[in-house]
Amino acid sequence: MHDRSGAALDSRAQQDLALDPFRIAGEPYYRPVAHEVALFEAAHRSRMPVMLKGPTGCGKTRFVEHMAWKLGRPLITVSCHEDMTASDLVGRYLLDAVGTVWHDGPLTLAVRSGAICYLDEIVEARQDTTVVIHSLTDDRRILPLEKKNEVLKAHPDFHLVISYNPGYQSVLKDLKESTKQRFGAIAFSYPVAAIEAEIVAAEARVDRRTAATLVNIGARSRNLKGHGLEEGASTRMLINAGLLVGNGIALAEACDVALVLPITDDPDIRDALRAAIAACV
Ligand SMILES: Nc1ncnc2c1ncn2[C@@H]1O[C@H](COP(=O)(O)OP(=O)(O)O)[C@@H](O)[C@H]1O
Ligand SMILES: [Mg+2]
Question: What's this protein's family per the entry (predicted)?
Fold first, then answer.
């Protein structure tokens, strides 16, 4: 690789360049809910692998973006899915004009150059894929690149973060005990009403009264959890409803589109939710 003056870049400069797309320029808005910022900073200082644990749409991804910005670290995010292989994370040889060339996967790039690597919704990945993180999450901090016959020692700034939604647990989709036990966990849940209203107002740009009504609706939907609903409406859903309101849709209809219809196919539960919404507006 060459810089503009044509001089060859040393490997350090090459790594910095590779991380450029992963640097977070502006502060991502995050409203702290409890002690999570200080906990993450402490875990980051000791490079303790961190698990962000909580229901969908409660702020885990936004939090890690905010923390990466605050700590001045690049953030490499991988959305995990069932078909993801270890090679998708680690890297592979690809054919090009000059022959086969090794391409680092996102995990390897983070390990080599010292980024925060965020494996989002890790339970979506198969267990035989997630075991590649094991040697990185104990005191060895190494990543074996088997196909390349190389053992990569993690950069001192490399930090591994995963998110995990305990609600989706099933025997087939869960982390191995040996994987879980490598992480410190920070618990996330929906914030108390006043803070959640502040977040909805800020993100959907609606007034505080509308935000408070949406949060009230969210709380009622969460009471239906276990009574026909797997999860109540998330903060994300309340923000979506707020965005529709901001674009001229009446609140009841906005809630229908943003939360009632997506969350359940059961007509009785829909009626119960619609009744709860009608009582709030
Ligand atoms: N504490 C918070 N501060 C700021 N925004 C938040 C917060 N919690 C939730 N949000 C909002 O909710 C949305 C969903 O959060 P996200 O981080 O994507 O959830 P998760 O990763 O837990 O599924 C975010 O895009 C953001 O708008
Ligand atoms: Mg997320």
Answer: Belongs to the CbbQ/NirQ/NorQ/GpvN family.
Task: Please give the model's pTM, rounded to 2 decimal places.
Answer: 0.93
Q: Which atom of ligand 1 is nearest to the CA of 203?
A: 27
State in Å: Cα 79 to ligand 2 middle.
8
From the CB of 274, is ligand 1 less than 6 Å away? Answer: no
CA-based torsion, 280, 198, 261, 268: positive or negative: negative
Distance between CA 170 and CA 58 in Å, rounded? 21
Residue by residue, pLDDT tens for the chain (281 residues) are 455 555 556 777 887 888 999 999 999 999 999 999 999 999 999 999 999 999 999 999 999 999 999 999 999 999 999 999 999 999 999 998 889 999 999 999 999 999 999 999 999 998 889 999 999 999 999 999 999 999 999 999 999 999 998 876 565 678 888 899 999 999 999 999 999 999 999 999 999 999 999 999 999 999 998 888 888 999 999 999 999 999 999 999 999 999 999 999 999 999 999 999 999 98
Kindly state if the Cβ of 62 falls inside 6 Å of ligand 1: yes
165 lines ligand 1 (CB under 6 A): no
